[in-house]
Amino acid sequence: VQLQASGGGLVQAGNSLRLSCAASGGTFSGYDMGWFRQAPGNGREFVASINWSDRNTRYSDFVKGRFFISRDNAKNTVYLQMNSLKPEDTAVYYCRALGYGKVIWGKGTLVTVSS
Predict the structure, then answer these.
(1) Cα 17 from chain centroid?
(2) DSSP annotation of 58
(3) 21, 47 in Cβ contact below 8 A?
(4) What tens digit of pLDDT does each residue of 77-96 get?
């Protein structure tokens, strides 16, 4: 399975973006999916995740109430709806699949939020 994130871009603070992460070369059936981000000069940090089994979601404190993760298993795609964006949300966003003893990272997509 390979993952490809898309949907990033330049947006003004307060606006919204929706990121997508599509799986190819297989299905992400059975994988827990997550979004992470890495800002310039910082390490990669957890943003949100959604389980395969019960679709339970988790969020980091700094996005809770603003970002929402969802998945469409029929389309092998996971989404990250980002609302009320802030300049500090500027980062490269990565999706990750976790399951079957594997950790699979996709190529990131850059989100830039201007003030």
Answers:
(1) 11
(2) E
(3) no
(4) 999 999 999 999 999 999 99
